[in-house]
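hey
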């Protein structure tokens, strides 16, 4: 979503969208459990809900997002102990191999193809050699009936409502085979994988 749209939706984002993604966040936490002192970066951190879960588990948390309105809400959740940045995730201001875990949840499909590729490259650069990258996003299928069709219908509705550019990026993301294609292109190793919601969503835990 563009900055203007997020400025309009930030106040109700957690109420409307949050419940739809709670299970995804819980599953992601199970795939790579948090440990005390772990350094975690959330790319496209939004309102900071996922960061707050890692923070409660004793992690040092960082977030980057392009929306000032979303970051304002995130700061209220995670406080001054978290480092939140307004910025471009395709050019992240972090040293090489610093994070134990880099996360991108429903963020890559919003971007144009060159940008999402650059974000994956940056994630590889800043994650430790023994760290992991957790990406959760829409999956190209196959879509199962009926659960996948229902999920796909809900997803399409929200993507259309997000505006023309957002919807075009979403369709391009799926047309390029989504996360599996990005993983192959950037030579990432799949540690764990879960395909949920009837094939419409994928969770991938990756090694650099």
């Amino acid at each position: 979503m563009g900055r203007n749209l997020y400025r309009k939706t930030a106040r109700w984002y957690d109420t409307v969208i949050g419940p739809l993604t709670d299970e995804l966040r819980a599953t992601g936490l199970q795939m790579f459990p948090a440990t005390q002192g772990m350094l975690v970066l959330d790319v496209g951190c939004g309102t900071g809900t996922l960061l707050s879960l890692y923070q409660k588990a004793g992690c040092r948390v960082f977030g980057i997002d392009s929306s000032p309105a979303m970051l304002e809400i995130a700061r209220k959740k995670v406080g001054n102990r978290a480092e939140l940045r307004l910025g471009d995730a395709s050019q992240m201001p972090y040293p090489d191999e610093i994070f134990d875990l880099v996360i991108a949840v429903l963020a890559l499909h919003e971007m144009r193809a060159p940008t999402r590729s650059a974000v994956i490259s940056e994630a590889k650069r800043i994650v430790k050699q023994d760290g992991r990258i957790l990406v959760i996003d829409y999956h190209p299928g196959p879509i199962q009936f009926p659960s996948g069709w229902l999920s796909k219908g809900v997803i399409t509705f929200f993507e259309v409502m997000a505006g023309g550019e957002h919807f075009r990026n979403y369709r391009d993301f799926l047309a390029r085979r989504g996360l599996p294609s990005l993983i192959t292109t950037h030579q990432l190793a799949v540690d764990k994988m879960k395909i949920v919601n009837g094939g419409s969503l994928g969770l991938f835990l990756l090694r650099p």
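The mean pLDDT is 91. The chain is about 45% helix and 25% strand.
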